[in-house]
Design brief:
Blueprint (H helix, E strand, L loop, with lengths): L2 H30 L8 H27 L2 H15 L19 H31 L8 H23 L5 H29 L24 H29 L7 H16 L6 H18 L8 H25 L7 H26 L5 H16 L4 H28 E7 L2 E8 L8 E6 L2 E7 L17 H8 L6 E5 L15 E6 L2 H9 L3 H4 L3 E6 L2 H7 L5 E6 L14 H8 L2 E10 L8 H10 L3 E7 L9 E7 L14 E2 L23
Parallel strand pairs: 5-6, 5-8, 6-7, 8-9
Antiparallel strand pairs: 1-2, 2-3, 3-4, 9-11, 10-11, 10-12
């Protein structure tokens, strides 16, 4: 085989594996996201799984290249490739649906292991393993360019999913398409493995002296300090990736696909720093990193860090510059090809350690999202270790670390000073605090999840039973409840918040709340009194609202409010045709389903209307400017079987038709695309 074809075979195997490696991440996350309330934490746990399995793949590659002959490597690897085909197609089994009693983190990890464990493991082994074989070829000095190629493939895959793949295919089609792609990868990888075993089985790594010196790195044995830095630098980069993602999706803007941006930036820095040494220049990156450290740390306790117009560019740019620093220093420390798999093993171990710390440990240890501030301090301290031979720079970097630490202290002080309760779990951080106004009668207690308000209540005893915030009498939900029959009403509510809707309850009414986060129930009981003060009978169901309704017997609701929010939007799985079928099973013939579609970034009203039209239902939009103090501007879409249900007073005259979106198709569990409804 000609050298050009051999290079193409190696490059094709690495590119295909990296492309599939990152394509499966959003694909599988989208499959399981509806089962866990659409929480952004699902993505963080998935990232931890991917990083840990990547570590296992790198450890496997390091072990077999050091302990087994090339022919033995071939037999083992081809056997595993064949065994992994049993996992195809990668369609998540319904038996993994949670009941609400499980720990979501461990359930997700088990689900992923049982669905894509071995295929993902083998994809993760390909980069270091094939590169170790490349090192045996005459062009072995260019081995680190293949690492850059793999990151480029990952970046292309990540960006193509929301733009090209998701809008044009169903989840089932994506799963089968990926499975066919994995079959192609298995063929390419097997061909590469067999070719190496026959052509270069007895070869050793090409000495640096026999290749182009401009592209080689020293082949000296790594020192203990090198191993520590190989571990620490990628750990900090992974830490920053997840911490920045958490910050901008929870505290800056709840925009779909926002998690793609930090991950793309992270991968881009890998591509640049490992493609060649020309992209990383200490004289340029170090001053920029110092500026971004201070700016990012300052933003954590100032409004510029939470305002979408300033916070988003600051933290995305900061992640890019700081990862250029961390990955650039990592590239400077890369060893010769003899120690390549050990280098990748440490890199992966560091990445997994950073991911586990932020994704699994932080939610149980830190009361709020403080991991970003801690990460910034640690990056500054890493600079001290890297610049330890230059005294002036060491003192400057220590001062930089102290500055970041001070801003972290200010952030914590601000939260603690104002907060009554601050609790955190898998679903995020919930804070309650009292807001005092000019007139003491207007003082309120508020509940926030990240940057989104989930309810407020007047502190004055005489006003505690007044509905507030998004739930005023002129809002869509207020009008729907008022228009319901006068007989004792059954009202279902998906999403509890502070429990404000219970304020509408009358004697004889039943209000049945569905809430996925147990800590929200506790705060609604201890910090607010809407539930306790309500004249209605309150029923509680813990778990995802849609899954719980699927299990429930018909409830005969007069009104069902779909008001669950993950970040700033209703989770997609609550807005599909199949979801509405579930809701209809629980409705009275003249009942009304009410969707809270209030959102600054995505237009969900046309989505609900499109589904209603496709099912022969009747829908209408209620927009309320809510100019009076206790309330906020809202958008609700009301859906009913009977058109007369939408013509009752006070609904009549308050409705309008949502503005349609061209080419919008009814959303289903198998096909939906938030990208198409971005405002």
């Amino acid at each position: 085989m000609k050298p050009a074809y051999v290079k193409a075979l190696f490059a094709g195997t690495i590119f295909t594996s990296a492309f599939l490696l990152f394509l499966v991440q959003p694909l599988i996350a989208k499959q399981i996201l509806p089962w866990f309330g659409g929480s952004a934490a699902v993505w963080s746990v998935c990232m931890v799984f991917f990083q840990v399995v990547l570590l296992a793949g790198y450890a496997y590659s390091d072990w077999i290249t050091r302990r087994l002959s090339v022919r033995a490597q071939t037999r083992l690897h081809v056997a595993l490739l064949l065994a992994s085909l049993v996992f195809l197609p990668i369609v998540t089994s319904a038996r993994w649906k949670p009941t609400g009693a499980e720990d979501p983190t461990w359930w997700i990890l088990g689900l992923l292991m049982g669905t894509i464990g071995l295929p993902y493991f083998l994809l993760s082994t390909t980069g270091p393993l094939v590169q170790s074989w490349v090192a045996r070829t005459p062009w072995g000095a260019q081995v680190y360019r293949y690492f850059s190629l793999s990151n480029l493939a990952s970046l292309v895959s990540l960006l193509s999913y929301p733009v090209l793949i998701e809008p044009r295919s169903t989840v089932l089609q994506q799963s089968y398409g990926w499975s066919w792609g994995y079959g192609l990868f298995a063929v390419l990888c097997s061909a590469t493995t067999l070719y190496v075993s026959r052509r270069w089985a007895a070869s050793t790594v090409v000495p640096a002296s026999k290749v182009d010196r401009a592209t080689t790195v020293p082949d000296a044995p790594p020192r203990t300090a090198d191993y520590l830095l190989w571990l620490a630098l990628p750990a900090l980069a992974s830490w920053l990736l997840l911490a920045v993602t958490n910050h901008i999706t929870q505290n800056v803007a709840s925009i779909p696909f926002l998690w793609v941006l930090p991950l793309s930036v992270y991968l881009l820095t890998f591509v640049l720093t490992f493609e060649s040494d020309r992209w990383y220049r200490r004289g340029v990156v170090l001053p920029a990193a110092a500026v971004m450290l201070v700016l990012c740390a300052f933003g954590l306790q100032d409004n510029i860090g939470s305002n979408v117009k300033t916070g988003l560019p600051i933290y995305v740019a900061g992640l890019f510059v700081l990862c250029m620093f961390l990955h650039g220093e990592m590239a400077r420390l890369r060893p010769g090809a003899r120690y390549l798999t050990r280098f990748y093993l440490m890199l992966s171990l560091g990445g997994a350690a950073g991911g586990v710390t932020v994704g699994l440990v932080a939610p149980h240890v830190l009361p709020a999202y403080y991991e970003l501030g801690i990460g910034l301090v640690l990056v500054a301290l890493a600079g001290v270790a890297l610049l330890r031979t230059r005294r002036i720079l060491v003192f400057s970097t220590l001062a930089l670390a102290a500055c970041c630490a001070w801003f972290l202290v200010l952030q914590v002080r601000h939260d603690v000073t104002g907060a009554r309760r601050m609790v955190r779990n898998f679903y995020g951080t919930v804070i309650t605090f009292d807001s005092h106004r000019a007139d003491p009668a207007d003082d309120v207690r508020q509940m926030y999840h990240g940057s989104v308000k989930h309810g407020e209540q007047y502190l004055a005893p005489a006003r505690r039973r007044e509905p507030t915030a998004y739930y005023g009498p002129d809002s869509g939900i207020g009008r729907a409840i008022a228009a319901a029959p006068l007989r004792p009403r059954r009202v279902g509510v998906i999403g509890l918040g502070a429990g404000t809707l219970a304020a509408y309850g009358r004697a004889g009414d039943v209000y049945r709340f569905y809430e996925i986060d147990p800590q929200v129930y506790k705060l609604a009981d201890t910090e607010f009194s809407f539930l306790a003060d309500s004249a209605a009978r309150i029923e509680r169901v813990t778990g995802d609202g849609r899954l719980a309704l699927e299990r429930d017997s018909p409830q005969a609701f007069d009104v069902l409010a779909v008001d669950a929010f993950s970040g700033g939007a209703v989770p997609v799985h609550l807005l599909t045709a199949e979801a509405i079928d579930v809701y209809l099973r629980h409705m009275q013939p003249g009942g009304v389903i009410v969707f809270n579609v209030t959102n600054r970034y995505i237009a969900l009203a046309p989505v609900i209307q499109k589904i209603a039209d496709s099912k022969g239902l009747h829908g209408a939009l209620v927009h309320d400017e809510a100019e009076s103090t206790p309330f906020r501007a809202t958008d609700y879409v009301l859906v009913a079987r009977d058109p007369q249900a939408l013509m009752r007073h006070p609904i009549r005259g308050a409705t309008s038709a949502p503005e349609p979106i061209a080419s919008l198709e009814p959303w289903t569990d198998d096909f939906n695309n938030l990208f198409s409804v971005l405002k």
